[in-house]
Design brief:
The protein has two helices and no strands. The protein is mainly alpha-helical. The chain has one domain.
């Protein structure tokens, strides 16, 4: 097996592990925001949730690009 496949698999598995470990913290921050809508700290927590969503989306896009790139190199 080639190196690109192992990089792709490692990136996906490590990223999925990080996302699932951070999920509970994001849920508690969201619960805090919904309970305290006018608190100053809730805007800080909202920014972290937005950054988490952006980073999750970027991880998904990079994972798809790596998979397509591997298929292109392997079968192309």
């Amino acid at each position: 097996m080639d190196l690109l496949l192992w990089i792709t698999i490692g990136f996906i598995i490590i990223g999925f592990g990080v996302l699932t470990s951070m999920k509970k913290g994001m849920e508690s921050k969201l619960a805090f925001i919904t309970a305290n809508t006018e608190d100053v700290e809730s805007s800080k927590k909202a920014k972290t949730i937005i950054l988490w969503i952006i980073s999750t989306t970027a991880w998904g896009i990079v994972s798809m690009v790596l998979i397509v790139w591997w298929f292109h190199n392997y079968y192309g």
